[in-house]
Amino acid sequence: MSSEERFSGLLDRLYAAAGDEAAWRTFLIELVALMKAQNSVFLAFDDRNVSYSIQASVGVSSEANALYNQHFGQLDEWFLGGRKIFRPNLVFDGRELCPAEKFAESEFYNDFLKRHCEDSFHECGAVLGMSVNKNAPPSLVSFLRTRRQGPFHQRELRILRKLLPHLQRGIQLHRRIVDLRLKNSVQSWALDRVSFGIVLLRADGGVVVANRAAIESCVRARGLELTSVGLHAVGALDEQVLQGMIHAAAFGDDREVAPAIRITSSSLMKSLIVSVIRTRTPDLLAVAPDAIVAVFISDPEKVLVPCEPVLTSVFGLTPAEARLAVLLGKGKTLQDAADHLRVTSATVRTQLLQIFQKTGTSRQSQLISLLSRLPPPQS
Q1: Which of 251, 159, 165 is nearest to 205 (CA)?
Q2: What is the pLDDT of residues 28-53, one digit of tens each?
Q3: I want to staple 239 with a disulfide (CB 3.0 to 4.6 A). Which of 35, 82, 130, 233 is the partner?
């Protein structure tokens, strides 16, 4: 394999590692071989977001790492000398940071590198970026050789200069991927808190995102099926109407289509209401940029009642009043609630009057309507 082919393969691994943190070490192993080094450390720090940081090493034991962090890092002659000259984009030879004669007499070499890092004596590396904290080490990649192997040469320094901009771009790409993953994770979590189903589709009908409520609703017994390739109705007529709605939303078809469809399972006789729109909402596009169609699935029979702590916190209901309000919100009659709570009918009527006063309602229908608009309990 030619040197150009080997370098090209190295770049492939580098950019693959930007999206897979575990792959940084695989990239580093090949780079160590190309640099004819014994071991290597790759550190990319970020003061603003610890999720951006990358740490990989080859040929350095966990024991050596611990000793360096606990004590010997403060005695690192290369770092101490480098503080005067380190700057972004610097490719350096360890002899520029500390003369070989001085290094050979140092505690860092004799008590640490000689004993715990197989007598590593020569270093070269590249500064990828500087920390805001001046006392913190820079982001860098460094390579070590033993005394027997000898110092690094211009060949290895040329490789680092050629690779440096790619390393910096790989780190930037890694940070963007981390941002997108965090953003997607948070927004997916938020979608799962929504009580109705949301399915985002591509123009070809493939599923991009489906929240928890959609997955729970789309079962064959309820008349809908959700797979990676699309959302489908079980009934032939319902399927024809649903796919027509999705197609019209995806391609801006001007023909008249139903704004919503009621899908009823013949076995359970329970309905789902499905509506379809073209995604124009920035929030939805942020979750799934390639989504074209948004499908909303609601269950008219699903009763959403807030949990007791919400009622206590928002309206100042007592625990007993909150328990009664939850039961009424679930469709229980006053007598049913009294039996369930094991109190008299007079007690629940008195509690209901207190609930009316605290919630600003005067009838059970108003109370139930109010409860349905409050945040439901979350698992």
Answers
A1: 251
A2: 999 999 999 999 999 988 766 677 78
A3: 233
